[in-house]
Amino acid sequence: QVQLVESGGGLVQPGGSLRLSCAASGFTFTNYAVSWYRQAPGKERELVAVITSAGGSTNYADSVKGRFTISRDNAKNTVYLQMNSLKFEDTAVYYCRTQIYGNVYWGQGTQVTVSS
Questions:
Q1: Along the chain (116 residues), what's the average pLDDT of each consecutive run of 10 residues?
Q2: Residue 114 and residue 86 in contact, taking contact as beta carbons nearer than 8 Å
Q3: Burial class (CB in 10 A: 0-12, 13-18, 19+), 40
Q4: Do residues 72 and 51 make contact, with C-beta atoms less than 8 angstroms apart?
């Protein structure tokens, strides 16, 4: 079955960096776009970044443009989110997501906490 497993979250100081990974299995990874979402306490889940199936196109939320970079390694069935210059407001649970024939699949999430 389709599985998405996030890793790489943790506690980081403002201005620091983290790299999240999303390992995919159970489907033809190279055929589908993958996105990162996040959900902060008391807030709705929001789109952070998306990458197309071949990785040729990316898009970002305004709040992370210039600081976050989404990429994928189709040989490893993995999508990454490089997060630099982290801010307090980046604190959230980060999820990866894909959609296959109208069915949406989510990972379990990884916690990112930005705190001094």
A1: 97 98 95 97 97 91 98 96 98 97 96 97
A2: yes
A3: middle
A4: yes
